[in-house]
Design brief:
- By secondary structure, the protein is mainly alpha-helical.
- The chain is built from 6 helices and no strands.
- Helix 1 packs parallel to helix 4.
- It is elongated and about 60 Å long.
- The relative contact order is 0.13.
Amino acid sequence: MCETQVISRHIGRIGRRSFDRRMRMASPLYVEKRGDLTRLLNDVDKLSELLHDEFQSITEEDYRLFSPELKIVIGTLKALRRESMIHRELKAYNERMRQQIVDLEELDHDIKVFRVDAPKNKELQASMASVGEIDFSYLFK
């Protein structure tokens, strides 16, 4: 079992900052709050790192626990990016947010496919076992 509590804590830390507060950070009246936006994006980076590090130990149970919150974080980042694209003062953050969104979506997809669905797929398991039995050593001679 992976560090589900640690992952959930990171997601929760990001989630506790309400959607409304994050949207206010992107508005022109709160441009001086760029430090808050930077801290938020740093927390998202830490979450991505943690998910990468724990990928091999994540179980279906773990995924079921943090998946809904992860989807909320991704959706909120997308909304924040859309809002920040309007304000040229925050354009420096757009590429970073885009990359974080892509990374989190890819991680979410990979966890779902490779850690949750793949172990249940008997045909895939049989194919992988067959591939494991093939001797590829003659290719390197």
